[in-house]
Design a protein that fits this description.
Blueprint lengths: L1 E2 L5 E3 L5 E3 L12 H11 L3 H15 L1 H12 L11 H18 L9 H12 L16 H19 L9
Helix pairs in contact: 1-2, 2-3, 2-5, 2-6, 4-5, 5-6
Length: about 170
Protein backbone atom coordinates (compact mmCIF):
# COMPACT_ATOMS: atom_id res chain seq x y z
CA UNK A 1 0.00 0.00 0.00
CA UNK A 2 1.31 3.50 -0.69
CA UNK A 3 0.13 7.02 -0.02
CA UNK A 4 -0.58 9.07 -3.12
CA UNK A 5 0.63 12.62 -3.49
CA UNK A 6 -2.90 14.03 -3.84
CA UNK A 7 -4.31 14.77 -0.40
CA UNK A 8 -4.92 11.88 1.91
CA UNK A 9 -5.52 8.81 -0.22
CA UNK A 10 -4.44 5.21 -0.14
CA UNK A 11 -3.69 3.38 -3.35
CA UNK A 12 -3.72 -0.39 -3.22
CA UNK A 13 -1.81 -2.61 -5.60
CA UNK A 14 -4.95 -2.85 -7.70
CA UNK A 15 -4.81 0.93 -8.09
CA UNK A 16 -8.03 1.58 -6.18
CA UNK A 17 -7.98 5.02 -4.57
CA UNK A 18 -9.43 5.45 -1.08
CA UNK A 19 -9.83 9.00 0.12
CA UNK A 20 -10.13 9.76 3.79
CA UNK A 21 -9.80 12.55 6.27
CA UNK A 22 -6.73 11.54 8.30
CA UNK A 23 -7.58 13.75 11.28
CA UNK A 24 -11.19 12.58 11.51
CA UNK A 25 -10.23 8.92 11.10
CA UNK A 26 -7.30 8.94 13.49
CA UNK A 27 -7.73 6.13 15.98
CA UNK A 28 -7.18 6.78 19.67
CA UNK A 29 -4.06 5.06 20.91
CA UNK A 30 -4.68 1.50 22.06
CA UNK A 31 -1.62 0.96 24.17
CA UNK A 32 -0.62 -1.46 26.87
CA UNK A 33 0.33 1.31 29.33
CA UNK A 34 -3.22 2.66 29.21
CA UNK A 35 -4.55 -0.86 29.70
CA UNK A 36 -2.35 -1.23 32.79
CA UNK A 37 -3.88 1.89 34.32
CA UNK A 38 -7.42 0.80 33.44
CA UNK A 39 -6.83 -2.70 34.82
CA UNK A 40 -6.24 -1.16 38.26
CA UNK A 41 -9.84 0.01 38.38
CA UNK A 42 -11.20 -3.15 36.79
CA UNK A 43 -9.00 -5.47 38.89
CA UNK A 44 -8.28 -7.55 35.81
CA UNK A 45 -5.35 -8.52 33.62
CA UNK A 46 -3.99 -5.67 31.46
CA UNK A 47 -4.21 -7.84 28.35
CA UNK A 48 -7.93 -8.44 29.01
CA UNK A 49 -8.59 -4.71 29.41
CA UNK A 50 -6.70 -4.08 26.17
CA UNK A 51 -8.69 -6.80 24.37
CA UNK A 52 -11.96 -5.22 25.52
CA UNK A 53 -10.83 -1.81 24.23
CA UNK A 54 -9.86 -3.26 20.84
CA UNK A 55 -13.24 -5.01 20.56
CA UNK A 56 -15.10 -1.83 21.52
CA UNK A 57 -13.18 0.32 19.08
CA UNK A 58 -13.54 -1.91 16.04
CA UNK A 59 -17.18 -2.84 16.65
CA UNK A 60 -17.86 0.93 16.75
CA UNK A 61 -15.72 1.52 13.64
CA UNK A 62 -15.91 -1.59 11.43
CA UNK A 63 -14.91 0.49 8.40
CA UNK A 64 -11.54 1.16 10.02
CA UNK A 65 -11.09 -2.54 10.72
CA UNK A 66 -11.76 -3.34 7.06
CA UNK A 67 -9.31 -0.69 5.88
CA UNK A 68 -6.64 -1.93 8.31
CA UNK A 69 -7.22 -5.54 7.22
CA UNK A 70 -6.95 -4.62 3.57
CA UNK A 71 -3.75 -2.71 4.24
CA UNK A 72 -2.25 -5.72 6.02
CA UNK A 73 -3.01 -7.91 3.03
CA UNK A 74 -0.92 -5.61 0.87
CA UNK A 75 2.05 -5.32 3.23
CA UNK A 76 5.24 -6.74 1.78
CA UNK A 77 8.05 -7.16 4.31
CA UNK A 78 10.71 -6.31 1.75
CA UNK A 79 8.86 -3.29 0.41
CA UNK A 80 7.95 -1.30 3.50
CA UNK A 81 8.97 2.36 3.60
CA UNK A 82 11.60 3.49 6.15
CA UNK A 83 8.94 5.13 8.35
CA UNK A 84 6.10 2.64 8.08
CA UNK A 85 3.61 3.80 10.74
CA UNK A 86 1.97 0.38 10.99
CA UNK A 87 5.26 -1.37 11.75
CA UNK A 88 6.28 1.41 14.14
CA UNK A 89 2.98 0.99 16.01
CA UNK A 90 3.48 -2.78 16.28
CA UNK A 91 7.07 -2.32 17.50
CA UNK A 92 5.87 0.19 20.13
CA UNK A 93 3.18 -2.22 21.38
CA UNK A 94 5.68 -5.10 21.56
CA UNK A 95 8.01 -2.92 23.63
CA UNK A 96 5.13 -1.95 25.96
CA UNK A 97 4.29 -5.62 26.44
CA UNK A 98 7.94 -6.40 27.17
CA UNK A 99 8.01 -3.58 29.76
CA UNK A 100 4.85 -4.95 31.39
CA UNK A 101 6.49 -8.38 31.54
CA UNK A 102 9.66 -6.95 33.08
CA UNK A 103 7.53 -5.14 35.69
CA UNK A 104 5.85 -8.45 36.52
CA UNK A 105 2.38 -7.53 35.24
CA UNK A 106 2.33 -10.13 32.44
CA UNK A 107 3.78 -13.63 32.29
CA UNK A 108 7.33 -13.33 30.95
CA UNK A 109 7.21 -16.88 29.56
CA UNK A 110 5.20 -15.60 26.57
CA UNK A 111 6.92 -13.93 23.64
CA UNK A 112 5.55 -10.35 23.42
CA UNK A 113 4.78 -10.88 19.71
CA UNK A 114 2.60 -13.88 20.58
CA UNK A 115 0.73 -11.89 23.23
CA UNK A 116 0.06 -9.06 20.78
CA UNK A 117 -1.12 -11.37 17.99
CA UNK A 118 -3.26 -13.60 20.24
CA UNK A 119 -4.97 -10.67 21.97
CA UNK A 120 -5.58 -8.85 18.69
CA UNK A 121 -6.98 -11.90 16.93
CA UNK A 122 -9.27 -12.85 19.81
CA UNK A 123 -10.53 -9.28 20.25
CA UNK A 124 -11.30 -8.73 16.56
CA UNK A 125 -12.82 -12.16 15.90
CA UNK A 126 -16.40 -10.88 15.82
CA UNK A 127 -15.81 -7.73 13.78
CA UNK A 128 -13.88 -9.87 11.27
CA UNK A 129 -16.97 -12.05 10.74
CA UNK A 130 -19.87 -9.64 10.17
CA UNK A 131 -21.91 -12.42 8.58
CA UNK A 132 -22.23 -14.02 12.04
CA UNK A 133 -23.57 -10.86 13.70
CA UNK A 134 -27.31 -10.36 14.08
CA UNK A 135 -28.86 -7.47 12.13
CA UNK A 136 -28.78 -4.07 13.88
CA UNK A 137 -32.43 -4.24 14.88
CA UNK A 138 -32.38 -7.79 16.26
CA UNK A 139 -30.40 -7.65 19.50
CA UNK A 140 -27.02 -6.78 18.02
CA UNK A 141 -25.95 -4.67 21.02
CA UNK A 142 -26.82 -7.46 23.46
CA UNK A 143 -25.00 -9.98 21.28
CA UNK A 144 -21.84 -7.83 21.08
CA UNK A 145 -21.90 -7.17 24.83
CA UNK A 146 -21.94 -10.93 25.45
CA UNK A 147 -19.12 -11.44 22.92
CA UNK A 148 -17.07 -8.72 24.62
CA UNK A 149 -17.47 -10.47 27.97
CA UNK A 150 -16.34 -13.74 26.37
CA UNK A 151 -13.31 -12.03 24.79
CA UNK A 152 -12.24 -10.44 28.06
CA UNK A 153 -12.72 -13.73 29.97
CA UNK A 154 -10.77 -15.73 27.36
CA UNK A 155 -7.84 -13.32 27.34
CA UNK A 156 -7.86 -13.05 31.13
CA UNK A 157 -7.62 -16.84 31.40
CA UNK A 158 -4.95 -17.10 28.72
CA UNK A 159 -2.85 -14.20 30.02
CA UNK A 160 -3.72 -13.48 33.67
CA UNK A 161 -2.04 -10.67 35.58
CA UNK A 162 0.97 -12.16 37.33
CA UNK A 163 0.81 -9.83 40.33
CA UNK A 164 -1.08 -6.80 41.59
CA UNK A 165 -0.51 -3.60 39.67
CA UNK A 166 0.49 -0.63 41.78
CA UNK A 167 0.01 2.98 40.83
Amino acid sequence: MRISGQGDALLGTAGIRLSFDSERNRAPPLDVHHALRRSLAARSAPSAVYAGRIHDYFTSHPDRFRLMSWGQLELDAGDSPPHDTYRESVARKIEQIREAQEAGHLDADWDPVDILVFVHQISTAWVAQPDLLPPHDEGRATFLTARRAAIVAAVERLLPATRAISQ
